[in-house]
Design a protein that fits this description.
Its cofactor is Fe cation. InterPro entries: HgmA_C (IPR046451), Homogentis_dOase (IPR005708), RmlC-like_jellyroll (IPR014710), RmlC_Cupin_sf (IPR011051). Belongs to the homogentisate dioxygenase family. There is one protein chain. A hairpin with a 2-residue loop joins strand 11 and strand 12. By secondary structure, this protein is mainly beta. The protein has an eight-stranded antiparallel beta sheet. The protein has a six-stranded antiparallel beta sheet with strand order 6-25-24-28-21-20. Strands 1-18-3-2 form a four-stranded antiparallel beta sheet, with no helix packed on it. It is globular. Helix content is 3%, strand content 39%. It has two helices and 29 strands.
């Protein structure tokens, strides 16, 4: 983010003494990306943010993956996947590679563990439910249709007001609006399908008292993604104020303005975010192509450089009728396999003026492998749905 915000009590001049009414010094923390060379924020703590009293191994959920071999398109039914109720520790890994991991969880209404992802930013899509995410920057409310963007190493916990279905995209780096949507100074441009008014960050500090507070940290080692349980001397939610361009925020798909055309538009017009070697797009209710001979459903296409993951969220996805795919489904169409609509849907789409569908797509530029959650909810018949038979 390059959209400046100031929340709570901050001094007039950065890196200068900042004291409370009793004269106690606040502790300034710079939270920044790319070694002081990219977006950052300054946070002012009541306690010392580095003060920990214990560090021990925490074992995250199973992070192992299995190659998509032999190569095949896949259909995963997430609504059949059973999870625990903690929004953090009970996520089940569905798909992953060295750049991004996609997991899924259905929460209860109890708060999650305190958590910090030190591997990369998290982009969590809220399929259903509502609540708040408490963070070191303040509280971020969420509702169905929100993307919740959590910068790398942001201490937070999920507090659902109702059971929530969370589709978690965990990056191995930073997630941001596509560069082509931004001016050279970071403002969202007029051709972008959303603007700064649509991004909702914390509006006031969240101050919580406490000592010996456990925070689960996911981080990297030479052995891959691992976990550590840190115990903080003081509660990490002790920030009286902060300012800068790095902070958590939400963006709701209702505020995305679909780009349409005379003939079928390619997926990049639906892009909402980008990460290291992957992109996030959303396909939403919209008017479709208006050429008199237009074919509204997608043409067959080969992802020669990427794997395509589509998560079907709402509505009736026209191109997939007859495939077995429904709400809560994921389709994985890997590089090396041409894919597209079910044959019967092409003629059926002719003359259609509007699609009522919602889906979230992640395209990756390295092959995706199947996590244990993906293997547990796979439809074994999907690969043969275009031919209608198998050998």
């Amino acid at each position: 983010m390059a959209y400046y915000r100031s929340v709570g009590d901050v001094p007039r001049t950065r890196h200068t003494q900042h004291r409370d009414p009793e004269g106690r010094l606040r502790f300034e923390e710079l939270m920044g990306e790319e070694g002081f060379s990219s977006d950052s924020s300054l946070l002012y703590h009541r306690g010392v943010p580095s003060a920990i009293v214990a560090s021990e191994v925490w074992e995250p959920a199973d992070q192992r993956t299995a190659p998509n071999h032999p190569l095949a398109p896949r259909h995963l039914r997430l609504h059949d996947l059973r999870t625990g109720s903690d929004a953090v520790v009970d996520r089940r890994l569905v798909l992953g590679n060295a750049d991004v991991r996609i997991s899924y969880v259905v929460t209860g209404t109890e708060p999650s563990a305190y958590y910090r992802d030190a591997v990369g930013d998290e982009c969590v899509f809220v399929e259903a439910g509502s609540g708040v995410v408490e963070t070191v920057f303040g509280v971020v409310p969420y509702r169905a249709g929100d993307y919740v963007l959590l910068p790398r190493a942001t201490t937070h916990r999920w507090v659902p007001a109702e059971p929530s279905r969370l589709y978690c995209v965990e990056a191995n780096g930073h997630v941001a609006p596509p560069k082509r949507y931004l001016s050279r100074y970071g403002q969202l441009l007029e051709h972008a399908p959303y603007c700064e008014r649509d991004l909702h960050g914390p509006t006031e500090p969240l101050l919580v008292d406490g000592t010996d507070v456990e925070v689960l940290v996911k981080h990297r080692t030479s052995a891959g993604v691992v976990g550590t349980r840190l115990v903080h001397d003081m509660h990490p939610f002790d920030v009286v104020g902060w300012d800068g361009c790095l902070y958590p925020y939400t963006f709701n798909i209702e505020d995305f303005m679909p780009i349409t055309g005379k003939v079928h538009q390619p997926p990049p017009v639906h892009q909402v975010f980008e990460g290291p070697r992957f992109v996030v797009c959303n396909f939403l209710p919209r008017k479709v192509d208006y050429h008199p001979l237009a074919v509204p459903v997608p043409y067959y296409h080969s992802n020669v450089d990427s794997d395509e993951v589509m998560f079907y969220v709402a509505g009736d996805y026209e191109a997939r009728k007859g495939s077995g795919i429904g709400l809560g489904s994921i389709s994985l169409h890997p590089g090396g396999h041409a894919h597209g609509p079910q044959p019967s849907t092409i003629e059926a789409s002719l003359g259609v003026e509007r699609f009522e569908e919602s889906a979230v797509m992640v395209d990756t530029f390295a092959p995706l492998e199947l996590g244990e959650g993906g293997l547990a909810c796979e439809d074994p018949d999907y690969a043969w749905s275009w031919a209608g038979r198998r050998l």
